[in-house]
Specification:
Blueprint (H helix, E strand, L loop, with lengths): L3 H7 E6 L14 E9 L7 E6 L14 E7 L5 E7 L3 E3 L8 E6 L21 E6 L10 H4 L1 E11 L4 E6 L10 H5 L6 E6 L2 E11 L8 E6 H11 L18 H4 L7 H11 L4 H5 L3 E3 L13 H17 L10 E3 L5 E8 L11 H15 L7 E5 L12 H11 L23 E4 H8 L4 H12 L1
Length: 457
């Protein structure tokens, strides 16, 4: 998934090198054609791709323009300019599909590596953001001032024609009377579904829908059209976010014995198992520290799924965040809310008994290098094998382990510098899931919550 900073860097400005401007009052210079979204398949790729709208790269005679300039910012905020020509353009075999892909020879590292997501009507009312370069704010002196976003909500998706409609927020700041004019330049910009400040690319903006400006409805083509273009051209193909089975009924029977002393929890667990938790699994709440037999599809592991079911059921019983709204937090009896994470790892070595030190090391070198764990968090640890009997990791122990890591090597063999660009979170409490379920035995839920609070304090 992408952050807002990622999306800003992915937003490209597409220009034609005309020497005169068609918009009165602007000095001679490149002509703004529209916007685009950057993507690369891997760090070593020799190509950078730009997803955009078909009408952005054709002229008034429906002919592909001979040459384009693509401008964007790199990770350090430096402006990058690439050149492309008609040979670098691919369009959909169906001329009615307003989508196109440009492929440029360039190496930009991991700046644009990400997965895309298929839209569905289950996304209705979810916030969406569109990023682009409105013609009304064209500013050659400042790339940042030229780039803007508009906000709205997912409305409906027609899977037959692969068109998404989304509606502008009332505070979007777009004049209804001149909506098409104000949105000129956004064409080809990315349309992102926004969930807990994480962005998922679902489409490419093409126009305002219909003639009724008061409806404030905009139209974009589904990202599926972009994928189809790449397949047709035999170029690199963007991958969809892995489809995660969020229903945990498959492990319900295996977990039922854990709550045999707590019939209320058992009833709650049945409800939890029948609820779709795909969004939770795909969020920062779940993760793995080192790849297991399932690689990054850790959510397919029966052990991981069973313990996730137990953990969610326990959280609903002991935390005020009973609806598990994101970000997921644990509420102590004293009124503190701690960010909560559920992470699976076999530690740095699976050849010997797993220890909490190995788990923390693998978490620090891998998991939190991508999804950094915040200060004063509670980490529930899952592992396939048994751990050392002492599974609790106090704040002091965590700090000592972090110090030991500072001269360690990461997975690729490079020296790990904990002070260079890596967060060193403090106040982390780590509890193994087996310890949680063990502590439930012979305790009332209120006593169990008191035990958890003591581990944090």
């Amino acid at each position: 998934m992408l952050t807002k900073d990622d999306v800003n860097r992915l937003t490209a400005r597409i220009e034609a090198p005309e020497t005169t401007r068609s918009v009165s009052g602007l000095p001679p210079g490149p002509l703004l054609l529209g916007s685009g979204v950057l993507w690369t398949p891997s760090e070593s790729s020799e190509y950078i791709y730009v997803f955009t709208a078909r009408h952005v790269i054709v002229d008034d005679l429906n002919k592909i323009r001979p040459i384009f300039t693509i401008r964007f910012l790199d990770e350090e905020g430096k402006e990058i300019t690439l050149e492309a020509n008609a040979r670098d353009v691919a369009m959909h075999s169906d001329e009615n599909v307003d989508a196109a892909v440009l492929r440029c020879h360039a190496t930009v590292g991991t700046l644009c590596a990400y997965d895309v997501e298929k839209p569905s009507n289950s996304m209705a009312e979810t916030p969406v953001n569109t990023y682009g370069f409105p013609a009304s704010l064209d500013n050659r002196q400042s790339f940042l001032l030229s780039r803007q976003s508009i906000t709205g909500n997912f409305t409906v998706y027609d899977s037959n024609i692969k068109i998404i409609w989304y509606k502008l927020d009332s505070e979007a700041g777009v004049n209804d009377a001149d909506r098409d004019v104000e949105l000129c330049g956004y064409s080809g910009g990315g349309v992102y579904l926004v969930n807990r400040n994480m962005y998922r690319l679902i489409g490419i903006h093409v126009k305002a829908a219909g003639s009724n400006a008061a409806a404030r409805v905009l139209e974009c083509v589904s990202i599926e059209c972009i994928v189809e273009i790449c397949i047709q051209r035999e170029w690199d193909v963007p991958q969809y976010l892995s489809e995660v089975d969020g229903y945990l009924n498959d492990v319900l029977e295996a977990c039922s014995d854990e709550f045999k002393e707590h019939p209320d929890l058992l009833r709650d667990m049945i409800t939890v198992a029948s609820t779709n938790h795909a969004n939770i699994i795909q969020s920062d709440f779940c993760g793995y520290a080192l790849e297991c037999d399932h690689t990054d599809a850790f959510h397919k592991c029966k052990n991981f799924r069973a313990n996730l079911l137990l953990l969610i059921t326990i959280l609903k019983a002991v935390s005020a965040k009973a609806e598990l709204t994101e970000p997921i937090e644990y509420d102590t009896s004293g009124g503190k809310s701690l960010p909560l994470y559920y992470i699976c790892s076999e530690g740095m070595s699976v050849k010997r008994r797993i220890s909490k030190g190995n788990f923390v090391k693998s978490m620090k070198l891998d998991y939190s290098g991508r999804r950094r764990i915040k200060d004063n968090s509670l980490v529930v640890w899952n592992s396939k094998d048994q751990t050392d009997l002492d599974r609790i990791c106090t704040k002091e122990e965590f700090d000592n382990i972090i110090q030991d890591i500072s001269l360690s090597q990461d997975i690729s063999g490079n020296t790990f510098d904990i002070k260079r660009g890596q967060a060193s979170p403090k106040g982390i409490t780590i509890i193994h899931i087996d310890e949680l379920t063990k502590q439930l035995s012979g305790k009332e839920v209120c006593e169990f919550k008191t035990w958890i609070d003591k581990q944090i304090d």
